[in-house]
From TrEMBL:
Coiled coil: none annotated. It is found in: Cell membrane. Residues 381-459 form the Rad21/Rec8-like protein N-terminal domain. It holds the Pfam family ANF_receptor. It comes from Cyprinus carpio carpio. This is Taste receptor type 1 member 2. It comes from the Eukaryota. Residues 17-294 form the Receptor ligand binding region domain. Keywords: Cell membrane, G-protein coupled receptor, Glycoprotein, Membrane, Receptor, Signal, Transducer, Transmembrane, Transmembrane helix. The keyword NADP does not apply. The lineage of its organism: Eukaryota, Metazoa, Chordata, Craniata, Vertebrata. It is a multi-pass membrane protein. InterPro entries: ANF_lig-bd_rcpt, GPCR_3_9-Cys_sf, GPCR_3_Ca_sens_rcpt-rel, Peripla_BP_I, Rad21_Rec8_N. The keyword Amino-acid biosynthesis does not apply.
Length: 511
């Protein structure tokens, strides 16, 4: 048992640079202290998907994950909190799942945006089931697991199911390298004799007989999702070794004993460019994020992928989509995927059902407004202040001076209301200045300044010159009882007649 524990500890310290595992659990450095990856984690991918959903204002979506790996589904549920997005349907897929039944449920719920965060084999079965069941006019968001699948876009009838948007790592083109490695620049060239000769030659330090049987086109048409991740993994290890071995342009210190923790320390400090991509790792040894949003153009032959947007986290978070490149299936307009239509001005939401996205609209009472800063919507009778915050031009001078700000300011909670208060004070000041300016224009030029005497009250206090009366001559009792009432005038009579409740009357319902 001790030997097993020692082996586990040693394995946890060995350096691993992975290019394909995206599960968020590998970001936990307590469990995986030496695990480095060059592919983005599921957390980043889920954040990207939420960005797209919010970009188009959708809030009624379905999420289909993998039954054996619910990492994506759990993260999606976590990160849509407080975003206004409702998860109307969710399911973990398996190869034996009833895909037709799943699509039927989604269609019955009027969900038009479907996220498939699953491996290619599950996604392929779902898309083929959608074609077979005549599912139309949906938006399909593909995770990077199958976003660049080369076979699915050629499926007959795929254009009818709607618009497919994929999220993938920004890709590099290795076409020139592949053609050069195959010994040809001609498309379709497949000289088996030449390939067999190449198969006997070493490529770097490996012999790959099977690779030599593939044409350049067959290699290029493979899913390129992991291409850059593999490329980055090799360069990450090379850069770290270069640092540990203290290499320069000519040589390295080959006698240096390289230990795993030394490589890990250097990887943490790496910062270099690779084909225009910034390579750097955070405290969890996750790479910098550089996603591409691709549109499946299945309306052209052959089908192709068109980059329509990007998501970067270096040097700062930037998310952009070129809406002009997105050719929606719905006559070019953005599809609707919301549980309810937003209420018009003058109406507030009335929740219906379990989801906050589902509501009906009811007319607001007079002199109230809908407070969008607090959910659910609250009506507050501070309409004029709200008007000043939102429609400044609509508020009149009469409205300004009707506002008793001193008594209502204690009720003000939202920032929008505070903006309204400031604007009212500002306009009151401007009105006062305007009134003063108008008064000055009516004065003659020689009366623009007043003399000190005309604006100063005379210091004439003759009223205090008279003698105070003698206190001995004042009847104190009569004087101080002038403003007093009789006790019987301000006291209710204690006349209860028969209204006392007796023990006999307790329990009598007529009482």
């Amino acid at each position: 048992q001790c030997e097993k524990m020692d082996l586990k500890i040693i394995q946890s310290l060995l350096e691993r640079v992975n290019y394909g595992a995206s599960s968020y659990v590998f970001s936990d450095k307590l469990q995986y202290p030496s695990y480095v990856r060059t592919i983005s984690s599921n957390k980043d991918l889920i954040e990207m998907i939420i960005h797209i959903i919010r970009w188009y204002g959708w809030n009624w979506v379905a999420f289909l994950g993998s039954q054996h790996d619910l990492d994506g589904l759990n993260l999606f549920n976590k990160y849509i909190r407080n975003t206004g997005i409702c998860l109307a349907y969710q399911e973990g897929l398996s190869l034996n799942a009833n895909y037709s039944q799943t699509l039927k449920k989604i269609d019955e719920l009027n969900i038009n945006v479907i996220v498939i965060f699953a491996l290619p084999q599950y996604a392929t079965k779902m898309i083929k089931a959608a074609i077979a069941n005549n599912i139309q006019d949906k938006v399909w968001i593909a995770s990077q697991h199958w976003a660049m699948n080369k076979q699915l876009p050629t499926e007959p009838g795929i254009g009818k199911i709607g618009t497919i948007i994929g999220i993938t790592e920004k890709l590099l083109s290795f076409n020139e390298f592949v053609y050069k490695a195959r010994g040809t620049t001609d498309v379709g060239h497949n000289d088996r004799a030449e390939s067999e000769v190449q198969g006997k030659n070493k490529t770097c330090n490996q012999v790959c007989d099977y690779c030599s049987l593939l044409t350049a086109e067959e290699i290029i048409n493979e899913n390129p999702t992991l291409s850059f991740s593999i490329y980055a993994a090799i360069y990450t290890i090379a850069h770290a070794l270069h640092k540990v071995l203290q290499c320069d342009m000519n040589e390295c210190h080959k006698n240096t004993v390289v230990k795993p923790y030394m490589l890990l320390g250097e990887i943490k400090k790496l910062d270099f460019l690779l084909n225009g991509r910034h390579i750097e790792y955070d405290d969890h040894f996750d790479p910098t994020i550089s996603f591409a949003v691709v549109l499946w153009r299945t309306d052209v032959n052959p089908p192709r992928f068109v980059m329509v947007g990007s998501y970067e986290k270096h040097p700062e978070i930037t998310f952009t989509i070129d809406n002009s490149l997105l050719l929606w299936h719905n006559n070019g307009s953005v599809p609707f995927s919301n549980c309810s239509v937003e209420c018009e001005a003058g109406y507030s939401r009335k929740p219906e059902g379990f989801h906050s996205c589902c509501f009906s609209c009811e007319k607001c009472p007079p002199n109230t407004y809908v407070d969008f800063s607090h959910m659910p919507h609250i009506t507050i009778t501070l309409a004029k202040i709200w008007l000043a915050a939102h429609w400044e031009k609509k508020i009149t001078k009469a409205h300004m001076f009707e506002c008793d700000l001193e008594t209502t300011i204690k009720e003000i909670l939202s920032p929008q209301m505070k903006v309204g208060v400031v604007r009212i004070y500002s306009k009151k000041t401007r009105y006062l200045l305007a009134d003063c300016s108008d008064a000055l224009t009516d004065l003659p030029e020689d009366a623009m300044e007043a003399t000190l005497k005309t604006i100063t009250l005379p210091e004439d206090f003759t009223d205090f010159d008279s003698q105070l009366p003698d206190l001995n001559t004042i009847d104190v009792v009569d004087h101080f009882s002038l403003n007093q009432c009789r006790t019987e005038d301000i006291t209710l009579k204690e006349n209860f007649e028969n209204h006392f409740l007796t023990m006999e009357r307790i329990g009598n319902t007529s009482e």
